[in-house]
Amino acid sequence: MPHTPAPLLSRRNALRTLAQVGVLTVTLPGGQAWAQSLPLSLPQGLPLRGAPAVEAGRVVVVFLRGAYDGLSAFVPYGDPNYYRLRDSIAIAPPEKANAAGDNAVLALDTLFGLHPALAPMLPLWQQGVLAFVPAAGSPDATRSHFEAQHHWEVGIPGRNSASTGLLNGLAQALAPANAREQVNAIGVGEANPAILLGAAPVRLIPSGQAATRTGVLANDRTRAALMDLYAGNDTLSQQFRQGAQSRMQSAEQLAMDRRTDNNAGDNGAGAATGLLLNAQHLGTLMQADPRLRLGFLSAGGWDTHANQGNATGALARNFSALAEALVQLRKDFSQPGDVVVVVSEFGRTAAENGTRGTDHGHGNAMWLIGDRIAGGRWHGPWAGLERSALNENRDLPVLADFRAVLAPVLRSSLGLTTAQLAPLFPGFALEQSLKGLVRT
Fold first, then answer.
1. Within 13 A of 415's CA, how many CA atoms are on the CB side?
2. Core-most of 103, 138, 227, 385, by most CB within 10 Å?
3. What is the pLDDT of residues 395-421, one digit of tens each?
4. What residue ranges do the domains of the chain occupy?
5. Which residues contact 25 (CB under 8 A, 6 or more apart)?
6. Cβ contacts of residue 222 below 8 Å, gap of 6+?
7. Residue 56 · residue 414 · CB < 8 Å
8. Please, what sign has the CA dihedral across residues 330, 407, 27, 322?
9. What SS3 state is found at 81?
């Protein structure tokens, strides 16, 4: 049969096609990105699932976008002010549990307890691998979601301009001097999160079942045409070929993973609902490639201004989905140096508002899961919920700078030195690191 030439595509038409189907991500100098959502730069010879275990630790960051209510996750039930401030959305104390025990706080100690929807996390606390810092955050006073998230993602409170993302900076620190193109970081779910922007190449995987599909690359003729179009040695062509290879290999890996077809749920039902599947994909890909030591996930839908609920309701449903994802991450990231960190841009008001919700706050609880975390306890200062102890008489103060929490974790898990960490947190004294958080 005679060969049918592949259709000719202009570069403009090719770019339009790629942008429509989400086939390529290219991270440019200065952190700008062209197109969206295809993984970038996967080395040749990627080992499939079952590769040797990662010897060094891995760090996975889970960002709860929208400012989740930490006072409902880790409930200060032992402080009577909690019930005074939250008449309709408070979680009942342990002694008021119903016969099934599913509507009340799960006591962790005499002060704090878990939201009942987070019950799957209780074994991790009992095993000593789950800890939290109840009043952590950025010292910047902003209550803007956009600004606060950016501060966290670049590791610099108050920095609103473009900057290298924190995980990208870590990827640069981890890259061997003779392998600057080595990919050490991966994000699943978001097209272009600020935390991964920078000079280091990263892999970006679409959310949900889209990660198992190859888009236009599945068509042999279209793929051949695109490869012909980007056959040159210029930077854009090289990055396209790397990205195309990555998309095909990632989709193949995830399709081979039996977990991909289980518990997928309806990804359109809400951002937190799809977190479990994204966590499964992250685990599959990071286990397959030992060079991937940094992972990123995120979930939206945490801005609970109205009808937040208490033991049940919108927030409880989000917590249930989050707990499933975190249990999955713990299964996949349970080597001695592995750590999962859960963060949010800021907390919420200590008192409920007039619509049975909570408004933008300041301090919030950070979660940490891992063998090297001194778990089964909480860390850092706690001033209580008396009005005089609250920030601006309304929300938790930031008593532990998020950089002081992250620094000892990154030292322990990734083996980085203070000199390597210092450029990532400019102007912050790393000796302020939270003592006792990491096992020595």
1. 9
2. 138
3. 999 999 999 999 999 999 999 999 999
4. 26-206+272-432
5. 33, 34, 35, 36, 37, 38, 39, 40, 191, 192, 204, 243
6. 6, 7, 17, 216
7. yes
8. positive
9. helix
| CA-wise closest residue to 36 among 64, 65, 15 | 15
Query: E strands within 43-154?
Result: 59-64, 74-75, 106-107, 113-114, 130-137
Range of weakest confidence among 122-126, 219-223, 381-385: 219-223
Lowest model confidence (mean pLDDT) among 62-71, 148-157, 190-199: 190-199
Q: What is the pTM of this model?
A: 0.79
For 238-376, list the strands marked E by DSSP. 294-299, 339-343, 364-369
9: its two tokens: 């595509």
Q: What is the pLDDT of residue 9?
A: 40
At residue 74, φ and ψ (nearest 5 deg) are -115, 90
**If you ran DSSP here, which 8-state letter would residue 263 be given?**
S
Q: How far apart are CA 65 and CA 393, in angstroms?
A: 24
Beta-carbon contacts of residue 410 (< 8 Å; ≥ 6 apart): 59, 170, 416, 421
Between CA 304 and CA 358 the distance in angstroms is: 6
Q: Which CATH class is domain 26-206+272-432?
A: alpha beta
CA-based max dimension of the chain: 83
Provide the 3-class DSSP secondary structure of residue 429: coil
Residue type, 244: A
